[in-house]
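[job 0412] stage=complex_fold ligand=BES status=START
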Amino acid sequence: MRTTDGGIALAPGAEPIDAALDGRLSATLVQLGATGKAGEQHRVTTFGATTAPVVLAVGVGDAPRTRRSSLDPEQVRRAAGVALRELAGADHVAIALPLSNQGIRPIAEGALLGAYAYHRFRNASKPDHRPPVNAISIVVDDARSADAKRALARAQVVADAVCAVRDLVNTPPSDLHPKEFADFAAKLAEDNNLDIEILDERQLKKQGYGGIVGVGQGSINPPRLVRLEYRHPRAKKTIALVGKGITFDSGGLSLKPTASMDWMKSDMGGAAAIILATVAIAQLKLRVNVTAWAPLAENMPSGSAQRPSDVLHIYGGKTVEVLNTDAEGRLVLADALVRASEEQPDLIIDAATLTGAQLVALGTHTSGVMGNDDKLRNAVVDAAKKAGEQMWPMPLPPELRKSLDSQVADIANIGDTYGGMLVAGTFLQDFVGKQESGQPIPWAHLDIAGPAFNQGDAYGYTPKGGTGAAVATFVQLAEDLASA
Ligand code: BES
Ligand code: MN
Ligand code: ZN
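[job 0412] stage=complex_fold status=DONE, emitting structure tokens
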């Protein structure tokens, strides 16, 4: 159902149910207080008039002004997600949502993403929590059509990737040290026939990855660098994806306050997103090359931890004065960006839960997109829009760079407090390499600090906790680049 000027209207797809109920569905819903607002839910019993004993009507909100009567794919995706979350505990759910213009992809995506729960560590409390819906049917005109099958397969691949990221983010940091994360990536590589290379702490030290080593040295769980590769024989473009993989961010000696620390198990959300996006892109056999780089470390305080005022030697030779050990993401990313640049990809995109300032600037649901190339930055924002993710272009004002000047090294790891998200992006920009022409490699940076982890209530197809942010956008962008 959706809102209209006068009240509610049934969204297309609901006609057969309405007919089975003698055309009384709208009136019944109105009597139940329905307004059609997005996320609203009302259950109607059918007393045997349909095969389903209960019908759940979900509000989709207003039809968008630009489209007049038809719905936006994201409205459909969210409505399917709301329904599947609400119906957790049911064995089988059939969905009758509008299929006409959008196809089945957003319905399948929303439903699969809504049917998610993380119960791995529930024992005694397990019976109190409903399991996700087991089977989902989508009612279509022709289930045998190749288009329908393709749309469904794509939705399944993307949803699986997003849910795997959610699992990784929700996993307690005691069960996901850098080594376990790298082992998980190795298993994915094996299952999907992808090349993988993992550097351990000895190799990282020997090869000069000062950022990753410096951040990781306070922990008894040593760091790793993962390189995962997908190649398509007819690819025209090679994309490097880089993701921040701090398995837990205590802040290090610049310790975080208690209240903001438990959230920091999500600080590997960028690394998880780029690894699983690469797997999804490979499973869909998209015509691009992707190399994913995940610098993994645990940021802990201890007698061996790096200190504020230490100077690190980043891979490739630049030095960084660490004035705040809690600005650690940019240090591990610096190593990875230089290393990724060495291979001369056509473009580099990183995803990172990088700054609290992202939340101040854009709120909890909208990622900031920065970069050195407006075209690429805008392509990321466009892909996000298609994928149903909220991302917004942000600038890297050149004047911010001087606030990062160090007294002793090439650059300091903190600068101006104002515009903290942009300052962090400006720091990263220093480590993006050049093309043979001397021009910088086109690069975009996604700050997903808030969107990677939902501290608030579940909404649409997004659960509490790990969200899987940026995966769908990366897959969409790869698809866009493959067809460009
Ligand atoms: N991982 C945090 C950023 C973060 C904050 C992610 C809140 C998700 C939610 C990052 O490592 C960090 O601590 N950043 C500092 C940077 C500061 C010291 C310049 C921050 O934002 O406070
Ligand atoms: Mn930090
Ligand atoms: Zn962090």
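The chain has 14 helices and 20 strands.
[job 0412] exit 0
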